[in-house]
Amino acid sequence: MEMYEAAPQSLLLDLDGAAAPFWSIAWQNQKVLPSLVSRQSNVLDMASEILMAEPVCLIENTSEQFMVNEEAVQILSAVTQPMVVVAIVGLYRTGKSYLMNKLAGKKQGFSVGSTVQSHTKGIWMWCVPHPEKPEHTLVLLDTEGLADVEKVDNKNDTQIFALAILVSSVFVYNTMNKIDQGAVDLLNDVTELTDLLKVRTSPDLDEVEDTADLVSFFPDLVWTLRDFYLCLETDGQLITADEYLENSLKLKEGTDQRTQAYNFPRKCIKKFFPTRKCFIFDLPTNQKKLAQLQILHDDELECEFVQQMQEFCSYIFSHSMIKTLPGGIKVNGPRLENLVMTYVNAINRGDLPCIENSVLTLAQVENTAAVQKAIAHYDQQMSQKVHLPTETLQELLDLHTASQREAIEVFMKDSFKDMDQKFQKELETLLDAKHDAFCKRNLEASSDLCSALLQDIFGPLEEAVKQGTYSKPGGYNLYLQKTEELKAEYYQKPRKGIQAEEALQKYLKSKESVSATILKTDQALTARKEKMKKARRQAEVARAEAERLKAIQWENQRLMEEQERRHQKEVWQMEMNRARMLQEQQRAKEHRLQEEAAMLNAKLQAEQRRLTQQILKWHMASRSFSIIVPHLKMMNIGTFFSPKR
């Protein structure tokens, strides 16, 4: 028990991560083979891990009332592989459980009794991997013995018989010794099935169509003859077991009631079981060892019996087909579970176990699951692809259309018998609702994003308004200019969604009162400013006029001073001119005098030179020249004629 409790939790999960009920139950009841503990790393397909160490009761038969065992239901719900269902029916104490244990490859499993009391009650199930078909599950169903003397009503046998046929793909009919009228009469329960089993619910449908549908639903028949002691010979010719079976089912000629009574069960068997096979089994060992048959080794059994058992198992493994419903629907664990529940509930209610109703019920379950799977796929695709808010409504519509198409493909892959496309229409309605919800969420996401973005962008402007930044003349134009700048910034932000413009206009409309207040304040302050400006202009005009008058006065003063300066200058100039004229007159006079003096001096000098020359001549003429010259110098005749004198 400890090794099971220490098993990894990963083995308790299925592919989707959901808890696998079968594992938890099987672990608690030690129903899982120890070899599974080492398979922690290979839980890729939950169905491939469904190995049962021993059978479990599938349908309990308590007080001749059927009840589906919850543990078996949990096991079936975990098997996703296609199923080959082999059911065995026969008289009690005829070795049915032994045959099923051999098919399971085990010596023990289904209860094998050695007394006259029936051991198997109800229908027991053993799911094992198919030995020759990978990724398939072989389901073995062992039924309680028919004609049990302890039973109150044989109707219960017929119900067991019916359930075995309804759920199996191979029906093993186990009888003793030979095919006799008793064995055929026992299988004559099939004739009752023509009344018990109904294909369709409408009573007015064509009976031929009913029968054809019913036959297509029936399993293959494998008739096993235990402890066979006859010679397979007819008219001195050896025959096969199959020929022996067909000979036993031959019809007699005649129309009398007795012949019809003989032929009728055979007709039913041949009609409802078109595929038939027969196996004979010799006595496995001597009478004393039969009580320990399940623990005997092959070398302790008769060689013929061992060979016959091998041929039987080989045929079952190689020829058994997957349980298939009308419409070619292959049965897996959940579908088999639904079939069993449907048939048992119908029988317990006293209703006819209608095949069509079971298929419709299964279709209801399968299609509902297919719808849920498609919706889950749609949700997954949309959650991965859609990033709200979308830039445009068309973008969301394109993503919805693509995801819707994939979801419908998922539904079509898993659905069957969706009459009038009821479930597909339901899926489309749900997808439309999903689309509407996404559109609503898209609007809300866009609105929320835009509101936050507007608050982020226009928040500083609102704060500036509160601080009175725009409460000044011209503030309204500045406010409008800033608003336009922020609007441009808002438009530049990507992926605002389809509410971008509406959110902006709504925001701007909500600020119209603020804008109006700023405009009113601006107008009042502007008028006041204009009044003050006019007053300033008037003051400036007056000041300018005063300055102009002052300038004129200053200019007049300046002109007067300038005129005075000019007068003084003119006076001075006149004086200067007079002085200059006087000077010039003086200089002219002096110049004239100088010229006259020069002329006189020149005359004197010339006279002096003449006199000198004359004196020299005299000197030379006279010896007293030397005396005359000094006297001439002393006389300084030139100085006497100087202008300064």
TrEMBL record:
Keyword Hydrolase (UniProt): yes
GO molecular function, one term: GTP binding
Keywords for the protein's UniProt record, in alphabetical order: Coiled coil, GTP-binding, Hydrolase, Immunity, Innate immunity, Nucleotide-binding
Boundaries of every GB1/RHD3-type G domain copy: 80-321
Coiled-coil region(s): 525-610
Keyword Cell division: no
Pfam families: GBP (PF02263), GBP_C (PF02841)
One of the GO biological process terms: regulation of defense response
Similarity annotation: Belongs to the TRAFAC class dynamin-like GTPase superfamily. GB1/RHD3 GTPase family.
Protein name in the entry: GB1/RHD3-type G domain-containing protein
Organism of origin: Oryctolagus cuniculus (Rabbit)
